[in-house]
Amino acid sequence: AQTVTQSQPEMSVQEAETVTLSCTYDTSESNYYLFWYKQPPSRQMILVIRQEAYKQQNATENRFSVNFQKAAKSFSLKISDSQLGDTAMYFCAFFDSGGGADGLTFGKGTHLIIQP
Amino acid sequence: GAGVSQSPRYKVAKRGQDVALRCDPISGHVSLFWYQQALGQGPEFLTYFQNEAQLDKSGLPSDRFFAERPEGSVSTLKIQRTQQEDSAVYLCASSLGLAGISSYEQYFGPGTRLTVT
Fold first, then answer.
1. Chain A contacts of B111, Cβ < 8 Å?
2. A81-113, pLDDT tens digit by residue?
3. B16 DSSP assignment
């Protein structure tokens, strides 16, 4: 079974700063995908960014980028020029594309607070 | 519709009552997932459908939990004889379910917050 660990329960930064959220995972699978989801107070989960495990290049989406270290099983999320609207819970998630578990495995989340 | 919808958004049940939670996935999405999210925790997988077939129900916590998707579209999660520990947000998600990473992207509904008193 896979596990996902987010070691930062809460983080707080000033608007416009850069913040990095950490995520580590444990798996014996070789084919998998990794995701970061954002869950604002309204509770609807929104996909932020995704990464295929077989790709060495780190994914980027505008102000969001990841640092994917496959050997270390690390998948951190960097948010540049943070904005007040980035305040939310952020969940790291793992998906086994090799036909193992059928659902996403989530970490416990990091509550990110952007201060004005 | 444009996104995944769930109803009701809030449900209060007395212990021992049966409840039914509905999920309308994105039209054309083959895969449908149910998750349970306890307060302050990440979602935990309950069950998975591919069209009308329930391919994985390993996450259902007890035989009081039952899910169905009879026509491969709308799904219902039913909880019988609710207990206080069933209090949580129940999230539904759907995905294209074909091949490639974009098909594995799950789109979530707003959830149903169930409170058992």
1. 43-44
2. 999 999 999 999 999 877 666 789 999 999 999
3. T
